Amino acid sequence: MRIDVVTIFPEYLEPLSVSLVGKARQRGQLDVRVHDLREWAHDRHNTVDDTPYGGGPGMVMKPEPWGEALDSVLASGDGKPVLVVPTPSGIPFTQELAVELSEQPWLVFAPARYEGIDRRVMEEYEERLDVREVSIGDYVLAGGEAPVLVIVEAVARLLPGVLGNAQSHQDDSFAPGAMSNLLEGPVYTKPPQWRGREIPEVLLSGHHGKVARWRRDEALRRTSQNRPDLVERCDPEALDKYDRRL
Ligand code: ADE
């Protein structure tokens, strides 16, 4: 997969060189290119923002640098990327969307600073590309760079061969399937006793069915505690089916 990010803070994307994403890049599974938007600003101060029409606080990102930057990125590859624009007014970023994005050969990210990008840029590229305005949660950050890190990590770990064990994302909280919409329950590792605390006995039983049933109960318990909204959306039939398989 190829990923391009156009930003006024290229150094903000440096974490994309470490850990899972960094390793995927080293292995050639992911081709990440970070571009400085100011390369496409032509005045003496490399200005990329201006005051909003209609007044109001803050600054708006100018359309010209974005247009030139995106045209240049688009011309540098084959086919059409999906353009991902992080914004608190976008559609919620979900695991489902992460899966969909992970199936694309090419993603271009346009993280904004200030009050956002001049609307005409979206209109322009919506005519040419699949554009997704995406929010990573109901809070407002200072810019879209941190959301890019979040989205890229969620997508990269779904790429074939990036996670060591393909099973490990099938039981994720929010993974599609029987347990979908349930949060993952607690996990334990050695030693069997720590500061006088034991691990649940069932995990030592070696009984696969009982372990799976325990995990499902814990998942339900944790979900009702932390996300009652998800329990409501949980399909009881899917749970029943899951139980019958145990
Ligand atoms: N930019 C600022 N806040 C954001 C959010 N919550 N999601 C995506 N992009 C953002």
UniProtKB/TrEMBL annotation:
Q: Which reaction does it catalyse?
A: guanosine(37) in tRNA + S-adenosyl-L-methionine = N(1)-methylguanosine(37) in tRNA + S-adenosyl-L-homocysteine + H(+)
Q: Name one GO cellular component term.
A: cytosol
Which SUPFAM superfamilies has this protein been placed in?
alpha/beta knot
Q: Name one GO molecular function term.
A: tRNA (guanine(37)-N1)-methyltransferase activity
Record-linked InterPro entries: Alpha/beta_knot_MTases, tRNA_m1G_MeTrfase_C_sf, tRNA_m1G_MeTrfase_TrmD, tRNA_m1G_MTases_N, tRNA_MeTrfase_TRMD/TRM10
Residues reported to bind S-adenosyl-L-methionine: I136, G137, D138, Y139, V140, L141
Q: Which domain of life is it from?
A: Bacteria
**Record localization:** Cytoplasm
Q: Tell me which Gene Ontology terms the entry assigns under biological process.
A: tRNA N1-guanine methylation
Q: Name one Pfam family in it.
A: tRNA_m1G_MT
Predominant location of this chain? cytoplasm
Q: Which UniProt keywords apply?
A: Cytoplasm, Methyltransferase, S-adenosyl-L-methionine, Transferase, tRNA processing
- Top-level EC class: transferase
Which HAMAP family does this one have?
TrmD
Function per UniProt: Specifically methylates guanosine-37 in various tRNAs.
Q: Which family does it belong to?
A: Belongs to the RNA methyltransferase TrmD family.
Q: What is this protein called?
A: tRNA (guanine-N(1)-)-methyltransferase
| Species | Actinacidiphila oryziradicis
